Amino acid sequence: MSATVGLPQGMLYHRYGLLWRTFFQELGIETVRSGQTTKEIMDRGAALCVDEACLSAKIFLGHVDALVGRCTYILVPRVSSFGHKRMMCTRFEAMPDIVRNVFRDRGQQFLHYDLDVNQHHDEPDAFLALGTALGCTKKAAKKAYAAAKKEERRRYKERVAAEEALYKKEGMKILIAAHSYVIEDPYLGRPVLDILKGLGAIPIRADLTDREAAVKRSAELSPTIKWEMNREILGGLAAHWDQVDGIVLLSAFPCGPDSMVNEIILHQIRDVPILNLTLDAQSGTAGVETRLESFVDIIHFKEGTL
Amino acid sequence: MTPGPIATGKKKIAFPRVADYSGVFRYWVEQCLDQTYILQPKCTHHTLEVGARYSPDSVCTPFKTALGSMIEALDLGADTLVMSHGLCRLGYYGELMEQILRDLGYQFEFVNFAAYSTGRSKDLLKGVKQLAPKMKAARFLTHVMDGVKMCAYIDDITSKYYQNCGFDPSGTYRAAFKRFLRAMDMVHSRPEIDEAYREASYAFAQAPLDKPERPLRVGVVGEFFTVMDAFSNLDLEQTLADMGVEVHRWMNVSNRIFHYPGEKNLNVEIRDLCTYEMGPTSTATIWAARKYARRGFDGLIHVKSAGCTPEIDVMPVLQTIGREEKIPILYLTYDVQTGEAGLMTRLEAFYDMLAMRKEVL
Question: Are strands B329-334 and B299-305 parallel, antiparallel or unpaired?
């Protein structure tokens, strides 16, 4: 078994990267990563992608392009639902087929798994199918998944604990509501965190929170919300919005779910200053910097510490 | 003092205008639920303008149209608004709409089927019960089926109309179609529904057509709402037909909802293009596009509203179809600002290209 699997470092990688890497490592399959997002990756993705798609999808296609020809398979899973009213944006549903059609003439093989709990494909099943598709035994695949899931849980718990500890710190705390693939991308959200830190604020991520509890809690702010990742963020907001000095709603342009959920947040949370910040493909962070600076100034002004 | 409206004790229910189906909603509310239906006038630019003013910027255009339509209904005296559930952003329309309207100060009862959707269709009946607590099951069921039949008739007549009205010098088609749609907005019983359908079918059959042996045929595919709603797509089908094109559209309420062949049955024919279900109407769009291409159509038009995620994702697949089947595809995105002149220019150019291509081939 000398097959190598390519992992594009966009979109779901930020949610499942550790799970994937550990899973393949346990199975003894080598993985190749596309590397951090760069301007080149983004431009390449934008050229391949339909104009109107979201920035994150463009970046993702750029990452896939960077892997073409460098590995036997590229992993592009379909993640559709985790249960009723626990859907993903339809783009995650469509991604394997988008990629298949965009890279149709490039002779690259792709690897899929289908996570759609509403259609009775849960995660253990999906990884079992993924493992056997790569020629492993069922037993080995199950064992690798169990080990990978355990590692993912352990690491995630650590990260949540570290994030929760930030609320106890002294200083101006700013809660950031963003999808993991926006906030963790070095080209999109990472600069926002850095700028806020540079301004002396403590940025805290709303999505890094106990997921199950957050999904339940999201109903406090929005009873019929249907997107899993937005429910996690809303749950985080519901639990913590009164412990922070400001909230930044950070989205990649144009995000379907965020376009509506952010509006609900703006209608529901009235007592904390909120900045609705949309990131587009413009290079340079000067514009974002100005807006964050003035936002921090407003908070200082409101609290009488300017 | 002017006398107020007569108090009937009935709810005044409204739903956003959707293509030519508003008569069906009215029929359901009045016949199944025994309540009053507030039928808004047809959408105008004003509807969209009002809706867009209070909507978030980057939400998809049907939300803006629907919100504008709801505001018009409230201004007409509706006291109960209904919103459906749905598989894409549509499933969240209700909650955001209610929030926006309440913050604007409107008073109304809101029945949001997204709140009743639990995955079991039985639970949706609870929403219906809220609209009409004293509803009788037998009456409800027969009249629901009448409405389903209305949809089938509307879809049948509409599809015949756009396939032929471009070749009808006497104008019989247009007159009969108009009469039929007006009748659908006013019918009260099954015999009336059947009569209107018979009349329209008869008129169509009698009309002398001046149709070439091989007319230009264009298949229209795309997003569920915008592709059906003539207001939202700036009367795309009529415009094409007037140029002398036979216009085909598979997507309608009967085909997609009441008589849907099923995700798997459609997917099996397009397996080489897409493995999975890509979105609520994606499989149908891809399947129809390829079917038209293989049946020798001259061109395809893909219609969607700005920001429609599932239909944006279908575009790479359509591009594959265009390349492999050698069929020209025009991609249209409808936004709040989309003007008729710009659309006309694009359609004319597309038509000229198709006509020249047909001559050469």
Answer: parallel
